[in-house]
Amino acid sequence: MSLITRGLRVCYGSSLPAIALTSTANKFRPFCRTYSVTQKQVPKKMAAERTLPQIFKFVDKNAESYKALLKEAVAIPSVSCDPKYRDDCVRMVHWMQDKLQEVGASTELRDVGYQTIDDKQIKLPPVLIGSLGNVPTKNTICVYGHLDVQPALKSDGWETEPFDLQERNGKLYGRGSTDDKGPVLGWLHAINAYKGIGEELPVNLKFIFECMEESGSEGLDELLMEKLKPEGFFDNVDYVCISDNYWLGTTKPCITYGLRGISYYFLEVECAKMDLHSGVYGGTVHEAMSDLIYLMNTLVDKDGKILITDVYKSVAPLVESEKKLYNSIDFDPEAYRQSIAAHKLAHNGVKEQLLMHRWRYPSLSLHGIEGAAFQPGAKTVIPGKVIGKFSIRIVPNQEPEEIEQLVFDYINKKWAERGSPNKMRITAQSGRAWTENPNHPHYQAAARATKLIYQTDPDMSREGGSIPVTITLQEASSRNVLLLPMGAGDDMAHSQNEKLNVRNYIEGIKLFAAYLYEVGILPK
Ligand SMILES: NCC(=O)N[C@@H](Cc1c[nH]cn1)C(=O)O
Ligand SMILES: [Zn+2]
Ligand SMILES: [Zn+2]
To answer: What keywords tag this UniProt record (predicted)?
Structure first.
């Protein structure tokens, strides 16, 4: 059975059927198992008292060099969604390969084929695979991260050049600083710190670093399921760890056991082969933009309720035990509102409702329109073709294929109601939601490491964003997967002035080192 779920599905305006690609069931894993943990009775206390403080000192001493390396990484504009930057993506992967090799890892670059954009075949950046240590008595952690970033222009409203990392007031501003270059480099520095104090790594490590995460991780599922898994890459993996998300707020750390999936749509309407002068052609053509706005306005109401027929039908029901969890989470809606200067939050700003609607209910967002005259100035053009972009963050137990079909059917129905003579086409690209068992010893190890660094017990949280490969890693390895965030909740990933606090970067490196240590003493 194939596990490829992130293919492009396409549906045309008339009654043409959608091309269905293969998919697997999205299994929502309830986290009801409990474990009794007997830690290896190795000299835990002794070693912790000796090794980790030395590592922490080493990390503090080398803070400037860590910032310098992040500056180098941020300077490579590895924007995955724009083929114009494809060479930079490839350069970024090679750069990281060199760094992994410098810490002693063996590496290889795996080809994942081509991507189709506007009927053109564009080569995907290779995936970087690495391995460090192969001691049979040690636990093995598989670390995943991504090297690509969202687009950024200074003219979007950045205070400084997005690809030139700048330190201001204890914050490192730059595209990719928190998502995900800072955390990826954090692993390198943690390894380097063990080496720096002359200590052996407490675990074996395996690495998977890609450069297409922000664009649906094209080719990665196939590499994991059809190549790496059969080749035995996951055979000795005991745990999987990803650092590619953020704390819920700005002061309290968390560990994350759930992500929403994403179903991303490109809705295209064409009325003419070129843009038209609205004084010459206005009043004589059926305008593509009017059709598109009509369609896009049928998707979601003013309160955020998705209007697509049956879209909520398969959402996992809320059970009492889960309901209680939201109450104890440390989350301040007013601070959250103020941090983004929103006028008013949805759901009357009620904490539990906000968390549920971020984590366990779907949401639909309208992202933008390609082909629209978005530059400043009174351009009087009728765009010949426009592409509306929207996505649905999907949740357990929503299947990407099921949601895509509901969207295609709904758009076709609305299109028929519109009765436009224009050409309409919709394509989709989706990744599944993921949940994990946070009562696992792996989570307890990460919680101990977090407490050691931040002197507080972390919240066990879910997250509204998506890392499509997470569930694939869970299935490929059959191991417990954990998200260990480095950045803070106000880092503004994907947005203007993305940043990583110096404190989160430096303490995050220590956290990773402590996490490696704690997993190292879990029973094999
Ligand atoms: N840090 C994870 C992240 O930002 N993931 C993206 C994934 C994405 C983007 N487009 C399609 N998938 C996200 O937006 O959640
Ligand atoms: Zn990311
Ligand atoms: Zn991202």
So the answer is: Hydrolase, Manganese, Metal-binding, Metalloprotease, Protease
Residues 6+ apart with CB under 8 A from 92: 73, 76, 78, 125, 147, 148, 211
Asked if residues 30 and 178 have their Cβ atoms less than 8 Å apart, the reply is: no
| Total count of residues recorded for the chain | 524
Q: How far is the CA of 38 from the centre of ligand 3 (A)?
A: 37
For ligand 3, the distance from its centroid to the CA atom of residue 384, given in whole angstroms, is 31
Give the 3-state secondary structure of residue 63.
helix
Residue 62's pLDDT band (cuts 50, 70, 90): very high
Q: Distance (Å, rounded) from C-alpha 180 to C-alpha 162?
A: 14
pLDDT at 227: 98
Q: Which residues contact 216 (CB under 8 A, 6 or more apart)?
A: 6, 264, 429, 431, 468
Identify whether 291 is a catalytic site residue.
Answer: no
3-state DSSP assignment of residue 92: helix
Q: Are strands 261-270 and 385-394 parallel, antiparallel or unpaired?
A: antiparallel
Distance from C-alpha of 58 to C-alpha of 65, rounded to nearest angstrom: 11
Q: What is the pLDDT of residues 217-260, one digit of tens each?
A: 999 999 999 999 999 999 999 999 999 999 999 999 999 999 99
Contacts of 46 (CB under 8 A, 6+ apart): none
Q: Does any ligand 1 atom lie closer than 6 A to the CB of residue 264?
A: yes
CA pair distance 357, 305, nearest whole angstrom: 11
Tell me how far apart the alpha carbons of residues 301 and 363 are, in angstroms, rounded to a whole number: 11
The band of 42, judged by pLDDT with boundaries at 50, 70 and 90, is very low
Domain boundaries 51-260+451-520, corresponding CATH code: 3.40.630.10
Domain boundaries, the chain: 8-28+261-316+360-431, 51-260+451-520
Question: Using one digit for the tens of pLDDT, what is the confidence trace for 322-338?
Answer: 999 999 999 999 999 99
213 in catalytic set: yes
Atom 7 (ligand 1) nearest CA:
214
Query: Looking at domain 8-28+261-316+360-431, which CATH architecture does it have?
Result: 2-Layer Sandwich (3.30)
Tell me, what's the pLDDT at 10?
Answer: 53
Total-model pTM: 0.90
- The position carrying tokens 């995955």 is 80
Q: How would you class 159 by CB atoms within 10 Å of its CB: exposed for 0-12, middle for 13-18, buried for 19 or more?
A: exposed
Distance 132 CA to ligand 3 centre (A): 27
- The finding on whether 145 has its CB within 6 A of some atom of ligand 1 is no
Catalytic residue among 148, 222, 491, 518: 148
Euclidean distance between CA atoms 248 and 487, whole angstroms: 10
* Ligand 1 nearest atom to the CA of residue 393, by list position: 15
Could you tell which of 144, 214, 470 is best to mutate to test the pocket of ligand 1, judged by most ligand atoms within 8 Å of the CB?
Answer: 214
ipTM confidence: 0.96
Q: Is 179 in the pocket of ligand 1 (CB under 6 A)?
A: yes
Atom of ligand 1 at shortest range from CA of 214: 9
